[in-house]
Design goal:
Layout lengths: L11 E3 L3 H26 L3 E2 L13 E2 L17 H29 L1 H6 L8 H12 L14 H23 L3 H6 L1 H7 L2 H29 L1 H9 L2 E3 L7
Antiparallel strand pairs: 1-4, 2-3
């Protein structure tokens, strides 16, 4: 029987710039507070409709019980719609400013083109299927392959940056009476104010799902190594296993 050599310690590399780390932690705090305050707003009428109007006795598309989400998930934890709206709007604008700064830095530094855009080889069906299979089996890249984002990471990050985030911003703005008056075409394009609310909630839940999967993969990949890299920038490459 061939002897299995023990894993050797991996090499330390610089994985995240200071700007990326700052943007990440501001984003993490902001998204958490926006989601929790958003659930507080949702609980004021825990039903989703489609069209311009929606209220009892209209039939909703989806209902989350009569009381909505549990209070420990909301901000504030008690029933306080006006307070929840103030928290929601404040951190929503903070997130928008942080996101625009991140996008400008990403484009200016070449990070988007260099690290996030998939190559033609990566987009080949065989490579995509292989990447999906490895993730389902929790076989994450090791050694040199761990220096770079894998295909599913790239697609997920690009989806959040260029699909989910703009959708959340536009649907959120379309529910603002002031923005409504200035750009009524956006509400019409989305199918009405209640349609915008339903799309806003759906995009937010997809973002929550992304965060859950992201945190799960951090735990699988090694939480200390992953979190350290987002605090100090130093990341230890998981070493290859000897055959």
């Amino acid at each position: 029987m061939r002897k299995i050599e023990p894993m050797q310690k991996g090499e330390f590399v610089h994985r995240h710039s200071l700007a990326t780390r700052i943007f990440h932690w501001v984003n993490a705090l902001g998204v958490l507070l926006v989601l929790m305050s958003g659930l507080q707003i949702f609980n004021a009428d825990p039903h989703l409709y489609w069209g311009q109007f929606g209220a009892s006795p209209d039939k909703p598309l989806l209902s989350v019980g009569d009381r909505g989400f549990p209070h420990w998930l909301t901000l504030p934890s008690w029933q306080g719609l006006s307070t929840g709206r103030r928290w929601h709007f404040f951190f929503a604008w903070l997130l928008l400013a942080n996101g625009l700064a991140y996008l400008a830095t990403t484009l200016g530094s070449g990070h988007l083109r260099r690290d996030l855009l998939p190559t033609r080889k990566e987009l080949a069906p065989s490579h995509l299927i292989s990447d999906i299979r490895n993730h389902l089996r929790l076989r994450l890249p090791r050694g040199e392959a761990a220096r770079h984002y894998n295909l599913l990471q790239k697609l997920a990050y690009l989806g959040v940056i260029f699909v989910l985030a703009p959708a959340i911003v536009l649907t959120g703005l379309s529910m603002s009476p002031g923005f409504d008056a200035a750009c009524p075409w956006l509400v019409e394009l989305l199918g009405g104010r209640q349609s915008a609310r339903t799309l806003h909630f759906s995009a937010a839940m997809l973002l929550a799902l992304f965060i859950f999967v992201h945190l799960f993969m951090v735990v699988v990949a090694g939480p200390w190594n992953e979190v350290r890299s987002m605090i100090t920038g130093r990341y230890r490459l998981p070493p290859e296993r000897s055959p």
